[in-house]
Write the structure tokens for this entry.
Amino acid sequence: MQEHQIEVSLGIKVEPVENVYRANDFKSLNEINRIIRIFEIKNSQQMKHKIFALEMLSSLKALASKN
């Protein structure tokens, strides 16, 4: 989802002067926290995949250099 879609779907008001989201009820606040957790998990998984790919590449290079 894009930021604008999230704002519209949750009815969140953006305060550009203070650069914060105003969530007036508990449901909106929980939804924002859920979205943040999703992005944190996504970033963590991307890092794990990058590390795994680097390990595989280094193994392949080591194998290729021995032959």
